[in-house]
Write a structure and sequence with these properties.
The complex is a heterodimer of chains A (about 290) and B (about 400).
Chain A lengths: L2 H4 L10 H14 L1 H24 L2 H16 L2 H16 L3 H30 L2 H16 L2 H12 L3 H25 L3 H9 L4 H34 L8 H11 L2 H33 L2
Chain B lengths: L6 E12 L3 H9 L4 H8 L2 E12 L3 E6 L5 H8 L7 E6 L2 E2 L5 H11 E4 L11 H5 L1 H6 L3 H14 L15 H14 L4 E5 L7 H18 L2 E6 L2 H7 L2 E6 L2 E6 L1 H6 L4 H9 L2 H4 L2 H4 L6 E3 L4 H10 L4 E5 L5 E6 H8 L5 H4 L6 E2 L5 H10 L4 E4 L5 E5 L1 H6 L3
Helix pairs in contact in B: 7-8, 15-16
The chains are: A mainly alpha (about 290), B alpha/beta (about 400).
Chain lengths: ~290, ~400
């Protein structure tokens, strides 16, 4: 039996790696002004969020967590539990690192919303666009998140700024998907009613479709936040500071205790933010459901 | 030909096809193929096929048909929620198909509004904001539109519910909101797409009555869609019956009932006898006056006088039905001619809540007193008067 029937024929070559490299090189050389602008824009955003977060006293943050979880769950026990969990992050000596991590998460989520929400609205309006965008979103979401770090680092350098870009690319698909899905699944009679009463397309979007789709859109925001949190650790490979870096250091030094401490802090952040956004979603659903 | 001034809406040879091969589908239809053949051969659904009618100002025009007969598509063409494939629709003599964007918005905002089967209410807005929606998109100032909305809410009997969420309302109340929203715009034409189909029979009757009284008061032109022939006959000044996208008969209810165009229409008219659908619990009332066995004759007389009735049901301690006492017999008891026990008529008609009205007809016609409705343990639940039984069939 000829060899090519058993082993994959070596003379068939598909090379997509070189074109991608050439494309990135092209971006670096020809679009450097553009990416410099993005870098400085992101840096300003990160610095201002960081500035605000650093100035929130620890007790005020605890109070905010307490009041918000109490109002969401109406249970004082939960409010106490969540504030204690956040307090534990401070007690583990990770308050400062948590602030950095929160800054990156918030910046990424803000940019994801700025990009993802309008895109989702746009996609919801056209079946053709939807079937075009869907496989792209699938690819973006299943691509191992590490991969995004390479072009991000090449284009924007090392540190927190490229991490925000990589995180956004990784975290934005669920928001686009769920915004579009939410708007599409608004009760057709309600949309018809909006049209029948003489709403312009814009009016029925702003006054009816988006408010009706809000719980689903918020589910998208929630998923985006969760993905951003997971990306914060991965991002440490290109020099992201904060809790992720702490985990990376522990891996390099094989310090399990230190690694788990930082890991637990990340879990706490995820839980508290998740419960808060879920609370908002449930409130919205209660209002929408009939 | 009727006076043209009076025709608000005129639909001419309206057709609506769904699918890609519309042109060959039209040719097939012309050469006499029916809906099913066209769907099979070309994948084109013929929803509405060459429908023409006129609606007079201030009248209720009812389109009736089974689901899939195309009635909902017709009504959606009247405000261009659906774009007709061919034909023309004239509003006050002007073709709405020739409206540009702005004219169409004006038409929808001022001339025509719609009430939906599952209400189509916006659950993120409260009652007031829902009713004011049409005025809001029209650009009416907040204070003004809320004042107008409150007026209309009062008219449909929802005063005091303005700040409620839609989810807190019952089906009947939701549709009142839907009607109020449609009326708030003060349109010339109300399009109602099976507005009462999702409601309980009793609520439906209320709403039908309400619609009639509102229509009399405001003199609106109504295009009403239903699958219930009784509703159609009750409300319609003119009724058109649709089958497979075509109108097969259009006439006043009286003429249609006496001269059905074909067997289909006849069956349709016969199919939905109300007595078959309504049961006793839909028409029974709480007895205004009940007498306990331990009450004396004086007390019984006083109660009957207070409620101005000539007879009353007598119940025991546990509300179990014992019999009926007439005012004459009560007088005799007071004067000592007979005893209370003898005065009570025990041989009386009873029925249960779930009895169909049609089964009660023969009994009711000969009944001397209202019929008592009792549960399994013979407790009095309500009464059904002869008038209630007979009028429910109208």
């Amino acid at each position: 039996m000829p060899d090519w029937l058993i082993n994959f024929p070596s003379n068939i070559k598909l090379n997509i790696s070189d074109p991608i490299d050439r494309f990135i090189d092209y971006l670096i050389t020809e679009w450097d002004v553009f990416f410099d602008a993005i870098t400085s824009g992101l840096r300003v955003l990160l610095n201002s969020i960081g500035y605000v977060i650093d100035r929130i006293p620890w007790w005020l943050l605890l109070a905010i967590v307490f009041v918000l979880t109490w109002r969401m769950s109406k249970k004082i026990g939960k409010a106490i539990l969540y504030s204690l969990l956040v307090f534990a992050i401070g007690a583990m000596g990770l308050w400062g690192l948590m602030n950095i991590t929160l800054t990156i998460i918030i910046a990424s989520v803000i940019i994801s919303i700025i990009i993802g929400f309008p895109t989702g609205v746009l996609v919801s309006a056209s079946d053709r666009l939807n079937s075009f965008v869907r496989p792209i979103l699938d690819t973006m979401q299943t691509m191992p998140s590490f991969v995004y770090l390479i072009p991000a680092a090449m284009l924007l350098g090392l540190g927190n700024v490229p991490a925000v870009l990589a995180t956004t690319i990784y975290a934005v698909p669920p928001l686009i998907r769920l915004t579009s899905h939410g708007i599409r699944q608004v009760d057709s009679e309600v949309v018809e009613a909006a049209t029948a009463f003489g709403s312009t397309k814009w009016q029925s979007l702003i006054k009816v479709k988006i408010p009706q789709a809000m719980p689903t859109i918020m589910t998208g925001v929630n998923q985006t936040i969760m993905m951003a949190i997971s990306m914060v650790v991965t991002g440490s490979m290109i020099g992201v500071t904060g809790l992720g870096q702490e985990v990376l250091i522990s891996i390099n030094r094989l310090q399990a205790g230190r690694g788990f401490t930082a890991g637990i802090a990340i879990v706490i952040i995820a839980i508290v933010i998740d419960r808060l956004t879920q609370g908002i979603i449930k409130k919205g659903e209660a209002a929408i459901e009939e | 030909m009727k006076n043209n001034e009076n025709i608000v809406l005129e639909v001419k040879n309206l057709s609506k096809l769904f699918g890609k091969n519309k042109v060959p589908a039209f040719e097939m239809m012309k050469s006499g193929s029916d809906k099913k053949e066209v769907a099979k051969k070309l994948g084109v659904t013929v929803a509405v096929n060459d429908v023409s009618f006129q609606v007079e100002r201030g009248k209720i025009f009812v389109l009736i048909g089974l689901s899939g007969s195309g009635k909902s598509t017709v009504v959606r063409c009247l405000n261009l929620l659906q774009k007709p494939t061919s034909g023309d629709i004239l509003f006050e003599g002007k073709s709405i198909l020739k409206f540009d964007k702005k004219e169409l918005l004006e038409y929808r905002r001022h001339k025509v509004s719609m009430v939906f089967q599952s209400f189509g209410l916006m659950s993120h807005r409260n009652v007031l904001e829902n009713v004011a929606y049409g005025l809001e998109v029209r650009g009416t100032k907040k204070a003004e539109r809320e004042e107008r909305a409150r007026e209309i809410i009062k008219m449909v009997g929802l005063e005091g519910w303005e700040d409620m969420n839609i989810s807190q309302l019952s089906g009947g109340m939701r549709q009142r909101v839907g009607i109020a929203r449609a009326l708030a715009n003060d349109p010339d034409i109300l399009l109602m797409d099976e507005p009462f189909s999702a409601l309980d029979p009793l609520v439906r009757q209320d709403m039908q009555f309400e619609l009639l009284s509102i229509q009399k008061k405001l003199n609106k032109t109504v295009v009403f869609i239903t699958h219930d022939i009784n509703e159609a006959f009750k409300l319609g000044d003119m009724v058109a019956i649709m089958k497979d996208g075509k109108i097969i008969q259009m006439d006043t209810p009286e003429n249609m009932a006496s001269n059905p165009a074909n067997e289909y229409v006849e069956n349709f008219i016969n199919s939905a006898d109300k007595g078959q659908i309504y049961s006793v619990k839909h028409i029974m009332q709480t007895p205004s006056c009940m007498i306990r066995t331990k009450d004396g004759a004086n007390n019984a007389l006083k109660q009957m006088r207070d409620h101005s009735v000539s007879s009353a049901y007598v119940v025991g301690d546990k509300l179990e039905l014992i019999g009926i006492l007439t005012i004459d017999d009560a007088m005799s008891v007071r004067t000592g001619k007979i005893s209370m026990q003898d005065a009570i008529i025990r041989d009386i008609l009873t029925t249960s809540e779930d009895t169909l009205i049609s089964d009660l007809l023969s009994v009711a016609a000969s009944a001397k007193y209202p019929i008592a409705v009792v549960d399994e343990e013979n407790r009095l639940k309500g009464i059904v008067s002869k008038a209630a039984v007979l009028s429910s069939l109208v």
